Amino acid sequence: AQDAGSAATDGMDAIAPAVFPIVPGGTRGVLFKVTPPALAPLPAELAQDPAMPAAEASQNAPTVRDSYLMGTIHFGTPREQGLDYAALERAMAEVDTFVNEADLDQPWQPAYDGYRWLPPEQPLSAMVGADAFERATALLPRVRPQDMQRMKPWSVLALLEARGETPGEAGMDARLQRMARAAGKRIVHLESLEQQLQALDCVPAGEHAQVLRERLLASWVLRIESAEAMAHYRGRNLDAWLANIDRMDGLGETARATEQRARRCLLEARNARWIGQLETLFQDGSCFVAVGAVHLVGQDGLIAALRRNGYRVEAVRL
Fold this sequence. Notes:
Number of helices: 16
C-alpha cells in the first residue's frame, strides 16, 4: 500500500475495475458509493410531448452513474490508516472527475501570510503565556521557536492534533490529487486556498489563544485524542471520531464556546457551501470526491445532506 501512490503513473488502462463489497447498514466506512436519484425530465421535454406518461418520460431520462465519496485523514501512514492505495487507484480509474477541497499544488502567495502569521509585535508566547509556549516547543520539536512565535493559534493547534506531522507530498490528500493527475482525470476543487485559510482563521487569534493555552496545559488530552482519531479512522467509525471532537475534553466553558465557533466555520459552513457543487457534479458524471473525513458525518455532514436530497450513500469495504 505504501508504494501504490507512486504506481499511479503506470498502466492505468490495464487496471481492473474496483469491486467493493457494500457494508451492511451502510453507515461505517471511509469510502462511500454515491448513487444520484433518477433525473426527472425537464419541463421543456415534457412540453414537447405532453401526452407522454411520466413513467415513460423517466425511462427516457439520461442515466446517472455511481460516484465515490472518500473521507481523508491528514496524518499517519497508510499502514496506520488501514488503506490500500492500489484499491483506491482502481476506484479512481472508474470515474471521470476527481474532486477535493482545494488545489494542493497552488503556489503560496505572500497575500496569504496574514492568515497564518501573527504580527511581529504580538508573539505567541505573550498570548498563551511562557509555560504554555515552552510546552508547545517541547511538543513540536520540528518547529523552530522563532517560527512558533509567529504562528497563529489555529496553526499550532492543527499541528498538535496531527501529532506534529505536516503531510506535504506524502499526505493522503496530496497523494490522491497526484494519482488523479497521473490518470488524466478532470480535477475540480470545492474552494480556493484562500477560502480554506479564511475558514481556518475565522476566530480572532486573541480568542483562539485561550483554546491553545488550555490544550497545552492539558497536553495529555491531545495525545489521547490523536491516538483515538487514528483508531476511529482505521476502525471506519467516523461518527465516534466526530463525537470525540464535539466533547472538547480539557476545555473550560469560554474556550469551548470559541472552539465551537471555529468548528462551525470549518465543518458546517463549508459543508453547506459544498453540497450544491457536489450534487451538480454527481448528476453530471462519475466522480471520486476526497474531503476531510469528519465532513462526511453528523446531522450537518455531507452524507446526511445527500441522503435528505434523495441520494443513496452506502459504505463500501476498503
